[in-house]
# Entry
Amino acid sequence: MQAPTQTIPLDLAVAEKGQKTAGLEVGQSLQGIIRFDLKEEGNHVLAVSVSYTETEPKDDEGLKDRSRTFRKLYQFIAGPCLNVRSKVSDLSLRGPDNGKRPNAEPMSFALEAQLENMADGPITLEKVSFSPKPSFTSASINWDVAWTDNGHMDCPFLMPRDMNQAAFLLKQQPKPKIEMTKDGRVILGQLIIQWRTSMGDAGFLTTGWLTSRKRQ
# Structure
């Protein structure tokens, strides 16, 4: 696979267990699956090379083997399937406790994320979670806290350009010490999203480190 920034060798997985790969009879076919996680936007080229040996009759009624090879290229453009916009609100009454004020109120934040389906077809959001830094705990206030009468989660179904809102409450722990950027922003954690297309293809996205606004 030729991605925008790298070339990655791929292995072919035989679709059916026990399927023969040593030879094919007349009319027989061989099916395989190639799995590759699209992590970059832009032009991709899948290069498939096939080498095989065919048996041909000789003039003296014998048989001879002839090796053949052919190569095919499949080009496609990968675009973002999900667009994420996040907003962090500071719910703290006081600033962070850096050891100078032992009675300082622990910090708390509300994280809101707007998820927009940028794909050409519908998707189902299977999981939206937040992986906080060790100095914070995270509580989800999304659809995963509610269950239907039959004991299943009613996961959001998004048509193209539909949006869904996700939110989390973050609270500071006594230890360890919080991590901050050089310009005074609190590093909170990462948003992790999993979805599935109408064809059953799984997708996942992990954001960069989300931070609070600059603290005075």
Q: What stands out?
A: The first strand starts at residue 13 and ends at 14. The radius of gyration is 26 Å. The chain has no helices and 13 strands.
